[in-house]
Amino acid sequence: MTTTPEHDDLAPVLRALRDGLPRTRAQLARELGLSRSTMSTRVDDLLALGLVAPTGDAGSTGGRPASTFAFTPGARIVAGVDLGATHARIVLTDLAAHEIADHREEVCIASGPGPVLDRVVEVVHTLLAEAGRDLADLAGVGVGLPGPVDHASGRPTKPPIMPGWDGHDVAGHLHAGLGSAPVLVDNDVNLMALAEHSSALPQVEHLLFVKVATGIGAGIIADGRVHRGAQGSAGDLGHVAVPGGEPVPCTCGNTGCLEAVAGAAAVAARLREHGVEARTSDDVVALVRGGNIVATQAVRDAGRAVGAVLASCVSLLNPSAIVVGGSMARVGEHLVAGIREVVYARPLPLATQNLRVTTSRIGAHAGALGGAWLAVENAFDTPGLLTRGTAGAADALSPVAPLPAAQVG
After folding, report:
1. Count H helices, E strands: the chain?
2. Are 141 and 17 within one domain?
3. Any alpha helices (H) in 185-263, and if so which ranges?
4. 325-356, pLDDT tens digit by residue?
5. HTH marR-type domain spans which residues (predicted)?
């Protein structure tokens, strides 16, 4: 159904009810400065669309009790997609980002956009069917990629670990299999920061989310919003030189980059130099959890290197919280202890007196949940998107064979 001005007029009412608090028609009319008759019509329209539901009576002050109404988050759903170097996680949530379905599998991002994105389409269709929903219910898709992204176009920009993805129309590719729902694409760490802020720390207006895994990057929340920078590359900590660090060659062509010094591959290589067999972040985590002293010290050193770079960020951005996530964060306090050791020591006391440095509360779901939040926020910010009735559904694609698992070696 084509969006009409009447449907656009419903958006302020829907946004007012988004907080979940039941209200009467009269309360909504006063809150939005509308007449009772106008509000009554708009509430009736939202009831017909299933976007609000009656919750009972407000209580009588003499006469017939007024009915109250509240937002129905499950009236529409969104999909969040987190694509990493070696994994894909896809979730379905309602419009309050409450998880409905979750799927994770190993993939190889280097397989290229065709097989990876076709697989995403297939999984979304499967999750929709299992949840008893269809494409008409899908209000948006948020996708996180492990590399630089032009947020305006949704196209990857020279991503170092994603051969064949440079400039690919990710949103257009997914549209072909998922119908008319908007597709938004961003860097995965930005989405992790969005998820941590929206779901776990909504009261924190200035937050720095640091992903420490194969690569290292940061998502910046400033004044409650994701800060992407002029070209979308804000937060690219992995290729900042570590102060006083060794001139280790990096994949970017420079030496001494944080990723080359403190990333999972760098820590594993350092362990092999000491005769401890480790290849992946999973190996490092297992060794630390098993009490291996060499691995624990290597992780603590990696934390200090991350902290040395973050110390400058703290002085520049003055965040209230630094949240550490990614596969290496699973080692527990050892990584964070190394970060704290440097971060609390170097900046001026004013910048650190109320600073918290902690691990992610959301964990492995942060990227996909951030994608869902991105789609939810877009749905509420786009006039008529949630109130247009049914979305145009595309035919389901033919089954796509599972991607080959990423080779670890």
Report:
1. 14, 15
2. no
3. 188-195, 258-262
4. 999 999 989 999 999 999 999 898 999 999 99
5. 12-57
Give pLDDT tens digits for 224-258: 999 999 888 899 999 999 999 899 999 888 999 99
- Which structure tokens are listed for 259? 């990723």
- Split into its structural domains, the chain has a count of 3
Query: What is this structure's pTM?
Result: 0.88
How is 266-319 classified by DSSP, letter by letter?
HHHHHHHHTT----SHHHHHHHHHTT-HHHHHHHHHHHHHHHHHHHHHHHHH--
- Residue 386 CA to residue 380 CA, distance in Å, equals 7
C-alpha 98/C-alpha 205 separation (Å) is 22
- Give the orientation angle of helix 281-289 with respect to helix 264-273, to 10 degrees: 60
Same domain flag for 88 and 128: yes
Pick from 326, 358, 331, 218: nearest CA to 271: 331
Q: Are residues 98 and 145 in the same domain?
A: yes
* Type of residue found at 335: L
Q: Is residue 402 part of a domain?
A: no
Please name which of 108, 155, 147, 101 lies closest in space to residue 124, comparing C-alpha atoms. 101
